[in-house]
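Forgive a beginner's question, but might I ask you for the amino acids of a protein and the C-alpha cells describing how it folds?
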Amino acid sequence: MEAKIIKSTSLSSAISNDIVLRETHTTKLIFRPMLVTNPKNQAAAVKGIFIFQRKGSSGTWEDVETLPLSKLKKHEGVKLVIKSSELLKLYEELTALYEIYRAEGIPLGVTRFIRASRTVKAVAEMSDEELTEVVRAKESMGSEALARLIRWASKADNFSLMFERLESLELDSLYKLNAAVGISTFKRALKTWLDNRNNPDEEFWQNLLANYSFVLEQIFYFPIVIIKSKAYVGGKSVLNRGGNLVDFLIKNKVTKAVGLIEIKTPKTPLLGSRYRDEIYNISSELSGAVLQVLSYRENLTRERDSLLRRHGLDLESFDPKCVVIIGHVGRELDSPEKKQGFEVFRRQMSDVEIITYDEIFERTKRLVELLEGRTQIESST
C-alpha cells in the first residue's frame, strides 16, 4: 500500500492522494478521497468521487468531463462495474483513511503517512509487560533490534524525524530514556577499562579518554570541553623545533578556565626503588610526567597571547590546572609502606593533581550506581 499524502484544505477538511483502481496505457479509473469533519456523524469521515481519466497528448492524465447524474433524462442511467480486486483495494485504502482520521483527526498542512508492517504495528500495540519480555529475550528481536533502532536514530539523516517523534513523549519518558542511554555509555566505558587494564599502549588510552570525556569530568567536578588532544602549547625554538604537545587541553565549559592533562598508562609504575626499609622512591616516569605538565603550563602561560590569537581560542581566565593520569593503585601499591610513599608525594603537589586510572574509573562506577539507584527509585514511585 502506497504512502498517504494528506493535505488540509480547511480546519475541517483535507484531500488525500488519488486511489488508482484501474489503469491501462491510455485510461485510468481513480477514486479521489477527502477527509471531512462530520458533526452529524463523526464516524462518517471520508467522502469522495470516482473519476475517469485519459492520457493527454503530453503524457499527463486528464479528467474526462462527465455529465452530472442530476442531469440524466428519463430512462437514462450510468453503470459502473467494479471488479472484486478493485473493490478490495478501495476498501483497504479507505480503511486506512478512517484509521488516520480516528488517530489524527484532520491533519494540518501536508502530512505523509506510511502504513506500518504487521510486525511494527504489533510492537506498537504491545503492553509494557510484553515489550519488557521482548527486549529481555536473547533469541528473539531483543537487544539486537533495540541496537539497530538506536544505530538508525544516530544517523544524521534521521535526526529530524527522531526529534519530531521524541517531542511527542512525556518529559518523564524523555528523562528516563536519557538516563538509560547515559548509564549504558558509562557502563561501556567501565567494561573497556576492565578489559584493558593491562594495556601498555598510551595511544589507546588517549583515544579512550577522548571518546569518553565524561570520565575526565570525574576528575574536575565541573563540566569540561576537550579543546584538543595532542595540543600544541608553545615552546618551539627559533628553528621551529621542540614544540610541546600536551595530551589534553581542556576548558571549564562555564568559566572557560584552562586545564592541562598529561597521561601515561595503567602499567606505568608509580614507585621506584626502595630508599630505606620503609621508604619508597617515586618512579622516574611519575616525576617526569609531573615536570613535563608543569613545563607545558609555563610555556602556555608565557605564550598565551600569541597562542590564543593564532588559534582563536575562546578562553577567559588563565591559571591552568594540571593533572597527571598514571598507574594503578590496586595492582602496584600492595603494602602500607608503598601507599604511604605515594600519598606523601601526591599531597605535596599543590600545582599538579595526580590520579590513577583505577581511581577515576572507580568514580565513574560510583556514578553509575548512583544513577541506577535513582532511576529505580523514581520508577517505583
Residues 9 and 329 are 71 Å apart (CA to CA). The radius of gyration is 34 Å. The mean pLDDT is 78.
